[in-house]
Amino acid sequence: MPQYFAIIGEKDNPVYEAEFTAQQGLSGQGQQGFPQDLKELNPFMLHASLDIIEDLQWQTNLPAHSTTSGTTGGGFLRSRNTSNLSNCYFGKVDHFYGLIITAYVTYSGMKFVMVHGSSTATTAQVDDNSVKLFYQEVHELYIKTLMNPFYTPGTPISSSAFDSRVRTLARKYLNK
Amino acid sequence: MNSLGTYSSFVDPAKVHTLVVPIGKWEVQKFKSAVELLKDVSEIRLLDISAIESLLFTPQGFPHGRIFLDIITSANNEALDLFLYDFEPFRKIFIVIGLVNDESDPSLNLETLKEKFPAITSQNLIYTSNLPESFKAEELETGNVFRWNMDQVIQLEAIMCDISRNFLLALDRYYSSYKHVTLRSPGAIGGSTVLKTTLTTTAGSQVKTNISSKSSNASKRLSTFEKTTSNLKRSASLQIARSLSTSDNKAQQRSQGRQLKILGNFQLLSGRYVDALNSFTEAVVLLHIVRDNLWLGSALDGIAICFILLSYLEVSFHVPSAITELCPIHKLHSDSIPSTPRNSVTVAPMLSSPRNSVNSSSSVPDLDIKNVNLPFLIKAISDKILHYYNLTLSQSSEYVPQTVYCDILLKTLTFMTACKSGPNLESTDLKTIVHGLHSELSESNSEVPTFSKMEIYGFASKLFELQLKDMEILVQRNIYYTLAEIYGLLGFTRKKSFVLRLLLVTLVATAQNTIWTSDYHCLLEKMTRLYGIDRRMPEISIDDASKSSWLTFQKKALQLCLTVSERVRDYDCISKFSLLLITRYTHLLTRMEQEKILNTNILPMIESSFISKYWDPFLLREVSLVRNVSNFVTNSSDSVNDNILLKKNEFMLNSNPNDGQQVFNPFRHTRGSSVTDSTLNRPTLQGTFLVGDIVDIMCKFQNPFKFDIQVYGIKLSGNNAKYATIINCDLSENNPMVLSAESFTSTYLKIKLLKPTFEKHFTISSLSLSIMGLKYDDFEIVLTENKSKSTSMMINDRRNLGDFSIKILPEQPELHVVKASDMIENKFMFLEGTKQKSSIVLKNKSLNSSVDYISIKQISNIEQSLKSDYWKNVLPDELYDMEMQLENIKEKALKIIRCPKSIKPNEIAEVEFEIDTSYMPFELTDIEVTIEYGQYLENTEDVYVKQLKLPYNFTLKRSIEVTGILITQLKETFPDSSLTVDWIGYIMGKLKEDKNKKISDYALVMIDMRNSWIDGIKLNFTFKDYCSQEYFLEGGHTTRIIVPVERLDFNHRKFYQEPIPKIFKGRQFIQSGLSEEEISDMRVNFWCREYVINNLNCLWNLSTGNLSGDVNFRQFVEKFDPKMVNSIYKGCSQFDLNLSLSEREVNIGSNLIATVSLNLQNIEKEDLTPLFVNFTMVDSRCNIPLPKVNNRILYNGILCQPLFLSTEEKVQLEMTPIEKGDYEISVSISEDLNGETIIPNSLESVSFKVN
Question: What are the beta bridge partners of residue A17?
């Protein structure tokens, strides 16, 4: 189950991009990434979903609203967990032909967005808990990067340490 | 209608598709405008249409109704939707209008239309030109041929009414053919060709869950109706069971329901909405019973349309109870009275249709529309339709075609976005819905949209559960277009661009060329704008360049746009996008990609002049001076330095405040900083050149791309071309300069200067280049790139521009040294004291300019080594000496004898000069002669001065030197035997001549002369009128020469009053700190020395005879000591004193009395202070003063005695010599006892002899 993950800055600029492939070497299946056409499409999908994220970002009472509007929207757009308003995890925000897009917005407005692909023809399955944990740990890494005096916020993160740690996290939480 | 796609309107099924075709010779624009006019009158009131015979469709049945014509100009959909005509007959094109602008035969035209569009039921012709004469006027009245003056709208309205009438007649005929047909579903007709709605498995499951959840919700709410209908079904079956079997009954009900549904569709088209509502309602009831879900959905759709159209016409109506039961309705007033006596009067009779129908709704009262939240009702109906359609998916033939499914989704979406005004749809909203208009949601911020963004978005996402790519390209186009518009309305710009991208990808993938129109231009522009590509100007702006953006992503989008524009052949876009790609995304493109863009896009676009400007502003990176090949630089050794200056009249000099530095300005330093600031940006002058010079410059070009760039030409830009021209640039299209890929290329240009700029700078800040066939364009010199915005400069410019500037002066004469006599490499060697004449020959090499102005200056190494304040802290006499020497060096050491006033072009002139080494001190080694010359500028005194510098080296060999000088006073005459000695003879002669003269009036100057040269030298001395004999001095020998000098008399020359002269006037001498006496002493000393030096001459001749010279005593003779001064200058005194001896010749032991007597005539009696007289005794043979106590002369008393001026008095000293010898006695007078303050006096020493 490959994923395409990106951290998007204020002006829709990618600060970090990565593609995680499933079962890297563990079960000997080799890498299983997105097909080529999807690789091309991923950034576009992710970019398009920013609209939805920005819309959700400022809505505090979306769950209440969605119930009033009856069945429309339904369980499709999952908003933040109401039990914890300070939660940055948005859950599934968008989908496109079976690809699910999840998002996480930091307090400074950086958007962590991920396209979850599916390895087979079946729907991409998203385990909210582990994805949420993944985002939170990446957020922690990102804050550490921000503390680096040599890093200018908003510029692409080129640190290989950051990259390898994010990939480790991805293996840990996403592609078990 | 937009050719990009059709924006779905919710009421599309109520519109009559009308095809307009051009007949005759139409221009595209004219035809389009004519079609636009037709569109303006496409809404036709039934009231205006005259009655027809048909009961079903006669306009009088519902005069409120309207016929909406959907005017199209292409019939692409025709074949595709064929299988849908039974199910949704509104997809068929009913009317064809031939727009004729020639005089062709109407009947023939009609035939053609019928041939070409056999399926279309109503053919009409509108003639915009004159009808042919053969055509009868009567036919015009009744038939389907019309005459229309294009500027008359009312006439057109009438025509459209007639056309509508024709349509209604045709519709009646058409419907009659359906009356006895068993209606089949599209899946059953089309078979495998009909695209079945395919929900993606993933989404499908989701939808299913959604639906299940929905339906579970619905079932809870609808439980009553479900029960009712099931009851009804049961009761109905009970009733009918007697006559018909269950299956027959079911089939009959189904076909009846379908018939009613299709009748409803036709009634919608004919504008009879109330009838349509009834038909649909009946159909719904029937179809629901038989669970014919597909047709049921479609019927529900018809009902929703009826609701909207009736609301639009402001006709009050009741929501049929079937609907209220099927769909949960938000009642506005829950306690509203069900049957109101209001407008329902007009509708109620209609409800009871003439046909027998299963009046199932009688038990449930109809709801008045006023009490219903219409938008939510419509939405609920749509949801229900989708629900029923979803149920059909599992069936083999009774399934819903994907087109139909998509249409419902799109229709509902557009409806949802249009609902802005709350529960009661207002007329503006209805208008937008009916006419398919769309405007931004944000425009009406004050209104709370009925449906939230998220709701609409969620609904829209359902489209992506369908496999859209399997559908017909035109349908896809419409879907994506509508979707993009909706996202745009919601403010989801990124989503919009994403959908547009999907659209473009789809379009690119298709092989159908027919759908490509140039209307995609604005779409492409929209894409680039949405993706933030064209807003940025990173080439110029630092702000934009420093901002990071999603480059890879933008690149892909841009590449897609480029591909599309290539397909569309939109050259503007091709050029724009390919340049954007190549400039901003260079580093992301491979060599292959770049070369492809260059060869397939950029080069052809340049050729067809769609690209007119080179795309990279960082092309020219440097222009610098390489080498001065000015023709006035010579290699000859005589002129080491060649320079050019501007000499101007003085007022002109002063006119420039920066140059006015002759006046000391104490504030100059404080001003300095500001001056440097202002000069910082001024171009630095790289050189000064003359007209006609050729300047080599180096130009550096940058090519960041992965392909070679050819430069076809280089020119000087703008005004610069007037002053200079490039001479070695023979670039052309066939011989271009190649800037190889990803590199810097330097080229050398020769610039010939044509016109003088005088004082102004000739600045090259840009070059005009022609690149790969583009027109010449100016490129500024970009030295560096500004990485970040500096705080001082708020200019948002990434380029740090540079320039290159020189001065061009008019053509100038040019002097060369052709020949210099007696000189080997400009070096002279002289015996000191000699003179020599020499000359140099100059030539004006210029062929045009003459030398009008010549000035020769010289400067020696001594002058150069002097500090400017050398005269400070120097005593006046020393200063005089020094400056005298300097002046001599300047004036006499090298003297120009002859110098030409002007030199004509190509003329030779000689400069003669004399070198007098006697004025050269030994420290002098170099003299630099500067010849300044120039040509007067036209009619002015101004001249550009060029300098020709001739440096000379001198080596002086010592010849005659003065090693010492002594002066003694003469006291006794000489015996006659010694008269042969030249100086004795002279003195004695003088004494004889003038009896008043005494021997003591003369002194002897003894000069030690040394011959430092190797050869013997003959010397001749003169002093005033004295001429010595010739002395011969051998090489390396020293001899003492005696020169008699007449002593100076105090009474004649009052030296202490004469100040020491100053050679340079106007200097402010700071007080030297000398006392008055010291000054007067110095003056006396100075003048005595001057007396000797100025009068003493010594000419010498080498014994070999070929050289002669004279001795410059000034540089050898030191300052005189007081004794020498006394010897040559008779002392002065205020007092008339006299010293006398009693005897001049005494024996040992005898007494001798020296008397100093004072003549009191001139003395003021009041002065009572005594003077002291000091006696000094000197051994005159060796000229040594005797000590006060000695054993040679004894004296009585003391040597210092007071002398009172008040009374005439004598002072006497009694002496007794006790040793033989020649002695002198002298007296000095002092004011105190110690004899320190000596008063000058005229007393002369007296000598005596002791035997």
Answer: A6
Tens digit of each residue's pLDDT (9 = 90 or more) over B698-733: 888 888 888 888 888 888 887 778 888 888 777 887
CA gap B1184, B1224 in Å, rounded: 10
Among A137, A124, A138, CA closest to A1: A124
pLDDT on residue A164: 92
Best mutation site among B553, B555, B558 for testing chain A: the one with the most A CBs within 10 Å?
B553
- C-alpha span between B1016 and B794 (Å, rounded): 85
ipTM of the complex: 0.82
Cβ contact, residue pair B205, A123, below 8 Å: yes
- Domain A2-23+34-57+83-174 in this protein, CATH class: alpha beta
Tell me the longest C-alpha to C-alpha distance in chain B. 206
Is the alpha carbon torsion for B288, B294, B295, B297 positive or negative? positive
pLDDT tens-digit series, residues B978-990: 777 888 888 888 8
Indicate the pTM of the whole model: 0.61
**Alpha helix ranges (H) inside chain A:** 36-57, 62-68, 128-147, 160-173
Please say if the pLDDT value at position B344 is more than 60.
Answer: no
The reported pLDDT for the residue numbered B423 is 59
Q: What is the DSSP string of B555-608?
A: HHHHHHHHHHHHHHT-HHHHHHHHHHHHHHSGGGS-HHHHHHIIIIIIHHHHHT
The class of domain B654-669+812-957 in CATH terms is mainly beta
Contact B143, B125 (CB under 8 A): no
Q: Rg (Cα) of chain A, in Å, rounded?
A: 16
Q: What CA–CA distance (Å, rounded) separates B364 from B55?
A: 30
Q: Strand order of the sheet with strand B835-844?
A: B815-820, B835-844, B908-916, B894-898
Residue closest to B127 by CA, chosen among B84, B157, B97, B92: B97
In CATH, the number for domain B12-177 is 3.40.50
DSSP B400: P
Residue B1046 CB partners (closer than 8 Å, separation 6+):
B990, B1001, B1002, B1003, B1024
Q: Which of residues 382-441 of B touch A (CB under 8 A)?
A: 383
Q: What pLDDT, in 10s, does the model give residues A6-15? A: 998 887 888 8
Nearest to A124 by CA among A88, A78, A174: A174
Q: Which residues contact B677 (CB under 8 A, 6 or more apart)?
A: none
Beta bridge partners of B517: none
Contact predicate B578/B562, CB 8 Å:
yes
Largest CA distance in chain A: 51
Residue of B377, B550, B552, B588 to mutate when probing chain A, most A C-beta within 10 A: B550
Contacts of residue B179, defined as CB under 8 A and 6 or more positions apart, other chains included, come to: B259
B1133-1250 has CATH 1.20.1260.10 classification: no
CA–CA separation, B270 and B69 (whole Å): 10
Of B487, B501, B547, the CB nearest to A44: B501
CA distances from A116 to A12, A80, A101 (A): 20, 18, 6
Question: What is the residue-averaged pLDDT of chain B?
Answer: 75
Q: B-chain residues within 8 Å CB-CB of A55?
A: 453-454, 457, 492
Q: Quick one: angle between helices B402-418 and B374-392, nearest 10? A: 170
B459 touches chain A (CB under 8 A): yes
Check if the beta carbon of residue B621 is closer than 8 Å to that of residue B701.
yes
Q: Inter-chain contact B494–A51, Cβ cutoff 8 Å?
A: yes
Domain boundaries, chain A: 2-23+34-57+83-174
- Pull the structure tokens for residue B820: 């210099």
Top CATH class of B620-630+692-809 equals: mainly beta
